Amino acid sequence: MPILVITGTGTEVGKTVTTAAVAASALAAGRSVAVLKAAQTGVRPDERGDAEEVARLAGPVTARELDRYPEPLAPGTAARRAGRAPVHPQEIAEAAAKLATEHDLVLVEGAGGLLVRFDPAGGTLADAAELLAAPVLVVAAAGLGTLNTTELTAREVRRRRLDLVGVVIGSWPTEPDLASRCNLADLPEVADAPLLGAPPAGAGALAPEVFRAAAPGWLAPRLDGTWDAEAFRVRERPVPLKDAGTAT
């Protein structure tokens, strides 16, 4: 798996923290890592972008960003409004392939979801993944509403005959509600792919050295971690309705 495409089921689901955790775990396993942000939006020239944030949290990775646009919009829209050239899927694929010749692992982080448009022709991260024939990791939200978006994303990955590595819950709540607890069993079912991790809420605010030490414990062995999905499900499982004293 020299190149891994990391997409979300939408915005603010924990893609960057997940990317940083995957990078930190790979570094801890002795692998060289590059992180490619396909297009950064909503960030000024003097602000730290997602790739740089991954490097801050994970450690010595090669961080590359193809372009950035100031408004927090879909890349294609943000590029048009800024009067700038868009980033095309072919450019993403070429940059990732070049990085893969120099690193053991290249993490390609998208913007928003899998089918967010990058250019006027409707090019997407999914198109870049197809050009690379790269596996895809889906980052999903924990709570109510995540099953539909996760299943739709998984179906599109498979429709394109790409390998869906698994699903990571991008931010596991400190006090998970009933929906979040039930989703531990339901997410891998609707995605037809394994649950591969659950970084805790607030992980991105940890000191980098703490983040790096903890990251392998948030991810499954498939992602160079030690996280046990079944043990996590058992620990977080919801109390059955009959055991909660509610009439059936």
Automatic annotation (TrEMBL):
GO terms for molecular function: ATP binding; dethiobiotin synthase activity; magnesium ion binding. Its main location: cytoplasm. Keywords: ATP-binding, Biotin biosynthesis, Cytoplasm, Ligase, Magnesium, Metal-binding, Nucleotide-binding. Substrate binds at T41. ATP binds at E12, V13, G14, K15, T16, V17, D50, E109, G110, A111, G112, G170, S171. The active site is at K37. SUPFAM superfamilies: P-loop containing nucleoside triphosphate hydrolases. Coiled coil: none annotated. InterPro entries: DTB_synth_BioD, P-loop_NTPase. Its cofactor is Mg(2+). GO terms for biological process: biotin biosynthetic process. GO terms for cellular component: cytosol. Pfam families: AAA_26. It catalyses: (7R,8S)-7,8-diammoniononanoate + CO2 + ATP = (4R,5S)-dethiobiotin + ADP + phosphate + 3 H(+). CDD domains: DTBS. Mg(2+) binds at T16, D50, E109. Pathway: Cofactor biosynthesis; biotin biosynthesis; biotin from 7,8-diaminononanoate: step 1/2. Belongs to the dethiobiotin synthetase family. Catalyzes a mechanistically unusual reaction, the ATP-dependent insertion of CO2 between the N7 and N8 nitrogen atoms of 7,8-diaminopelargonic acid (DAPA, also called 7,8-diammoniononanoate) to form a ureido ring. This is ATP-dependent dethiobiotin synthetase BioD.
